[in-house]
Amino acid sequence: MELVINLIINGLATGMLIFLLAAGLTLIFGLMSVLNFSHGGFFAWGAYMGIWLFTTTGNYLLAILGAMAVGLLLGAFTERVIIKPVYGNHIRQILITLGLMLVLQEMLKVVWGPNQLPARAPEFLSGSWVIGDIVIIKYRAFIILVGFLVFFLVHFMLKKTKIGLVVRAGVMNKEMVQALGININRVFMFVFMLGSAMAALSGVLLAPYSGVIYAEMGLEFAILAFIVVVIGGMGSFPGSLFAAILVGLSGAFMTYYVPDLSLAVNMLLMVIVLSIRPEGLFKVKG
Amino acid sequence: MTTILNVEQIETYIGQYHILQGVSFEVPKGEVTVLLGRNGAGKTTTLRSIMGLNPPSKGKIVFQNKEIQGMPTYKIAGLGIGYVPEDQGIFGELTVEENIRVAMKDNSDATMERITKVLELFPDLKKFWKKEGGHLSGGQKQMLSIARAYINENDLLLIDEPSKGLAPIVVERVMESLQDLKKSTTIVLVEQNFHMASSIGDRFYIIDDGKTVYSGEMHELNENQDLKKKYLGIA
């Protein structure tokens, strides 16, 4: 029983990290029809900036806020300068955002060097709680808590505020949103910045979880996030949470019980879901 | 008679297709101007060109003495033009209430009064206030789409085929509501249903192959069987 609970905690923690990365990606795709391959770059920059701030100042909250600020700035710059000229052209979007991803990756090496950097959790999140035979690693519980907190905050924003309403409406029919007198470009920028900040948050949270950070981590995790977006349904925010948890849990269980299949499990999940529901588990109705 | 909208020789391309090749018409304030024509004649594209959704490459669109061609859609809408598209443009996952809220430009008393009025006009919307737009019937969606365009103080409503795909009894209700809206707003109506068009419209323009080919007062068209047969396929 304790093994299953530990696997669930591991799976949920990984799932939450992927969710934070995928949620922005799905909103950006749903609202703006933009295939943003540079999203992993914001994730990696969030990790590096956060760990650098934490190492320099010892303040973990500052590290998290700093990482998110970098995400916001990178998001604003990317949307205005890189994405805006290629709206509506998927081929160009893929090429230019992949290019940006590589630039962001190489820039990390320029600033912080080509080697892996160690990342540790702050003192108050180190160690574990032992309840009976169950060992709960504090940092993993923290990731799960932050993941749910972000989900509820963004969910509240989407459901209860005017900007959230506009974002949801825009995901369904952006032409109509404009015809109602709303400047969709401002909404695009807001969503892009929000998504980028969430990716950066995911990066800084992942760092102590994995123990090291490296420039290529963005691309690796972005692939998982894309799988989650496809499984959850393009544009669906709750879909991305559900799919991320599904991917996290299946990864954790398969790694333990059928390690040979652990790498293939995500692809397998995607194939199964797409064969049954080609639009993903949570279809956004237009 | 004040002209609220003046469309002058607009030409619009969609991709490589030259859809509008010279559409011109005037909309007098307080009247219902009907755009008629066969399927594919360019009526919907005309409304979309006015809204900036398919901007014209040539010609002029003047709304209340201001040239609006080339302006972004949201600015055109902000000038006081409401748009009810052919597919109704309902946000399927938003409730009726949310569909209305997303369209509200402010929370002023005037807006609230208009919402109250529109709910009196369309009681079904009040009944299904918390229901998702995607789960409404075709007629209810049409009512919601018209309501959404009406709740802001727009000086002009562009309504694209409100009777399309609706049962005759629902068409009658939509028609009644348009008769009511007509008392307070100028309307440009694209309509294939000649009965609806002729009973609501004050004047008409016929669009054929992307050009305006005929215009006049609505009663003239009612009496002109040849014209109806030639351009509208009505015997």
From TrEMBL, chain A:
Primary residence:
membrane
Q: Does the keyword Transmembrane helix apply?
A: yes
Record's keyword terms, sorted: Amino-acid transport, Cell membrane, Membrane, Transmembrane, Transmembrane helix, Transport
From the record, give the transmembrane residue ranges. 7-31, 51-74, 94-114, 134-158, 187-209, 221-249, 256-276
Query: Source species, please?
Result: Pallidibacillus pasinlerensis
**Which InterPro entries does the record cross-reference, listed alphabetically?**
ABC_transp_permease, BCAA_transport_permease
Q: Which residues form the signal peptide?
A: none
Q: What is this protein called?
A: Branched-chain amino acid ABC transporter permease
Membrane-related topology note: Multi-pass membrane protein
TrEMBL record, chain B:
Coiled-coil annotated residue ranges, if any = none
Family (UniProt): Belongs to the ABC transporter superfamily.
Q: What is this protein called?
A: ABC transporter ATP-binding protein
A Pfam family assignment: ABC_tran
Enumerate the InterPro entries for this protein.
Answer: AAA+_ATPase, ABC_transporter-like_ATP-bd, ABC_transporter-like_CS, BCAA_Transport_ATP-bd_LivF, P-loop_NTPase
Which UniProt keywords are present, listed alphabetically? Answer: Amino-acid transport, ATP-binding, Nucleotide-binding, Transport
**Keyword Repeat attributed:** no
Q: Which GO terms describe its molecular function?
A: ATP binding
Q: Which domain of life is it from?
A: Bacteria
Q: Which residues constitute the signal peptide according to the record?
A: none
- PROSITE patterns attached here? ABC_TRANSPORTER_1, ABC_TRANSPORTER_2
Any keyword ATP-binding?
yes
Using the record's annotation, list all stretches that form the ABC transporter domain: 5-234
Q: Which PANTHER family match?
A: ABC TRANSPORTER ATP-BINDING PROTEIN, HIGH-AFFINITY BRANCHED-CHAIN AMINO ACID TRANSPORT ATP-BINDING PROTEIN LIVF
- Species per Swiss-Prot/TrEMBL record: Pallidibacillus pasinlerensis
